[in-house]
Design the sequence.
């Protein structure tokens, strides 16, 4: 099948590469010439495990290409995926300008039947806007041609995106056009050979399903984070509580970890956007409003613990920070907790030596030449001369550190652990104070 993917970011590039892997002829379009240049030179503009191999293989086979040429992109695919960003607008609602611009380009240039597929996360009613934008462009040039608009939200997780796309839990298709549904079934058939995963529904339900999924996951995290705060105050251990409730199959173990707040390009913006969408029809979403408030507060928990130990003025203190990406296996820093932690530490006069396996370039881009921020080549190097260690992202390489070295290198041997990586008794036995989230705060004093 001939496919165009509009927007070659995390979702667009993975979608394009995985569809090419199944034998389709895919052209990926982006307005960012730098991104397309990197891809055309054989590079990958993002860190996503396994993606480089899939991209290289399919480029080599002539099934995957990249362009900034809109005309060529519209002409190429019968199916046109829209996978552009939908960042939060100033008021928190989803900014649809990129989606609408992509739709207008299609309407302006199409000459034959197209199935336009919304893969971006978009509020309920966006398919109508996409349809209207295309129809408007066709009317402007007095051109008549059939087209269909389908909602096909994406559920991949950064860090496991290729695997998620290749072996999806479900494929949501929101459509009312039989021809388009048949096309989508054919396109996704190779991804569900084991059992049927395609759920066909009306467009609005499909659009809402994506927000509902992210909102539910964010709710579980904020719920556990609040319980962790309570556990700490009441002398309980959130890790025991997690296992105790996760054993109930109605609850389950996944996504129940307490920590220093969720970030990323999806949960924060999608929770906000859903609250905004609901408000437009006079529906309050009290639970989600609380989920968001709790998360904003949770991002400050590590700094609160630091202030409790050293006082509000951190002038002269230096912190080793392990982990900058919003979660492991990605270089994505959007809404990452580390950004809040670093900004708060700087505001209070502290300096930071940070280490992250893949997100340091992105951090440099965000913080520029911030003089209070330096980088280490590996985790132990970040410790040298630092007062204390702060862990923000749960990368695997932080899981079994040399505690003796941590104790020797830190001026004040203490770990502020935002991801509960260690067995407290092990850390304390090594002579280090341990301040995790929702568990006993183990200090020598
Ligand atoms: N990142 C994720 O994990 C994830 C998962 C599921 C869904 N989503 C959703 O998918 C959408 C895309 O997310 P992303 O993380 O891939 O974003 P991204 O920012 O990584 O990529 C978007 C790309 O679209 C390009 N673009 C913008 N306007 C364009 C236009 N008119 N024509 C061509 N290209 C254009 C941008 O230059 C950028 O490269 C969002 O709605 C997001 O919510 C993201």
Sequence:
């Amino acid at each position: 099948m001939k496919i165009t993917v509009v927007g070659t970011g995390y979702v667009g590039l993975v979608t394009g590469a995985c569809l090419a892997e199944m034998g389709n002829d895919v052209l990926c379009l982006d307005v960012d010439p730098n991104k397309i240049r990197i891809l055309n030179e054989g590079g990958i503009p993002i860190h996503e495990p396994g993606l480089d191999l899939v991209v290289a293989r399919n480029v080599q086979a002539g099934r995957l290409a990249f362009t900034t040429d809109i005309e060529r992109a519209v002409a190429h695919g019968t199916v046109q995926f829209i996978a552009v960003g939908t960042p939060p607008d100033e008021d928190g609602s989803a900014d649809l300008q990129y989606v609408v611009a992509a739709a207008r380009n299609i309407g302006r240039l199409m000459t034959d039947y197209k199935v336009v597929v919304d893969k971006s996360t978009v509020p309920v009613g966006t398919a109508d806007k996409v349809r209207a934008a295309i129809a408007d462009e066709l009317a402007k040039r007095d051109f008549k041609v059939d087209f269909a608009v389908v909602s096909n939200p994406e559920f991949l997780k950064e860090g496991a995106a290729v695997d998620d796309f290749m072996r999806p839990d479900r494929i949501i298709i929101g459509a009312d056009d039989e021809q388009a549904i048949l096309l989508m079934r054919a396109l996704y058939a190779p991804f569900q050979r084991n059992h049927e995963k395609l759920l066909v529904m009306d467009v609005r339900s499909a659009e809402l399903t994506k927000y509902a999924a992210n909102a539910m996951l964010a709710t579980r995290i904020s719920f556990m984070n609040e319980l962790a705060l309570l556990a700490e105050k009441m002398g309980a251990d959130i890790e025991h509580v997690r296992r105790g409730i996760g054993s109930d199959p109605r609850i389950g173990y996944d996504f129940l970890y307490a920590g220093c707040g969720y970030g990323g390009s999806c949960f924060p913006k999608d929770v906000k956007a859903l609250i905004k969408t609901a408000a437009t029809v006079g529906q309050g979403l009290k639970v989600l409003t609380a989920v968001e408030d709790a998360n904003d507060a949770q991002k400050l928990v590590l700094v609160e613990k630091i202030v409790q130990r050293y006082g509000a003025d951190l002038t002269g203190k230096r912190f080793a920070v392990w982990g900058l990406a919003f979660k492991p296996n990605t270089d994505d820093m959007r809404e990452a907790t580390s950004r809040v932690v670093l900004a708060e530490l700087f505001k209070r006069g502290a300096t930071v030596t940070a280490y992250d396996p893949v997100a340091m370039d992105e951090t440099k881009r965000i913080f520029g030449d911030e003089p209070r921020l330096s980088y280490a080549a590996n985790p132990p190097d970040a410790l040298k001369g630092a007062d204390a260690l702060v862990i923000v992202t749960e990368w695997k390489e932080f899981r079994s550190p040399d505690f003796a070295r941590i104790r020797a290198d830190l001026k004040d041997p203490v770990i502020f652990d935002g991801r509960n990586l260690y067995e407290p008794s092990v850390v304390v036995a090594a002579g280090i104070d341990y301040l995790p989230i929702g568990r006993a705060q183990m200090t020598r004093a």
Remarks:
- DSSP finds 18 helices and 14 strands in the chain.
- The chain has a mean pLDDT of 97.
- The CA atoms of residues 8 and 44 lie 11 Å apart.
- The longest helix spans residues 203-234.
